[in-house]
Design brief:
single chain, 131 residues, mainly alpha, 6 helices
């Protein structure tokens, strides 16, 4: 009897793990946020540094312009929520030191990157901004 239950338990555990992985991935990947997430990733290195020592790369500015276009589609609040979700889920994961750096410099980098790229998203790209 014990030898029959062992494979059943293994199968059950595998199915359970698959279900958990599916639920977690769905909660962090809102289809409305797909374009925002893809575009924000282009600026990930700039955001991880936490400050701008040079003008942002053209690719990052173009990506921010595409996110600005998403604001027109989704609205400021939804786009802001998408950006924050991407920041926590994909760009910084759970790296507390990077999150602390971004939080400390959030106003500076958010204002500076949007100004340098001639973009106005209507919100700060920040871990501590309330959408």
């Amino acid at each position: 009897m014990g030898s029959v239950l062992k494979p059943v338990v293994h199968i059950f555990l595998l199915l359970l793990l698959g279900l958990i992985a599916t639920v977690l991935s769905e909660s962090s990947s809102d289809p409305q946020c797909a374009n925002v997430t893809v575009n924000l990733h282009v600026c990930a290195d700039v955001l991880r540094r936490g400050n701008l020592t040079v003008v942002p790369p053209t690719e990052c500015c173009n990506a921010l312009r595409r996110i600005q276009d998403e604001v027109a589609e989704l609205g400021v609040q939804q786009t802001c929520l998408c950006v924050q979700n991407c920041i926590f889920s994909h760009i910084f994961y759970q790296d507390a030191s990077i999150i602390a750096t971004l939080a400390a410099n959030a106003v500076d980098i958010s204002t500076q990157i949007q100004s340098d790229c001639d973009v106005n998203l209507g919100f700060r790209i920040s871990t501590n901004y309330v959408c």
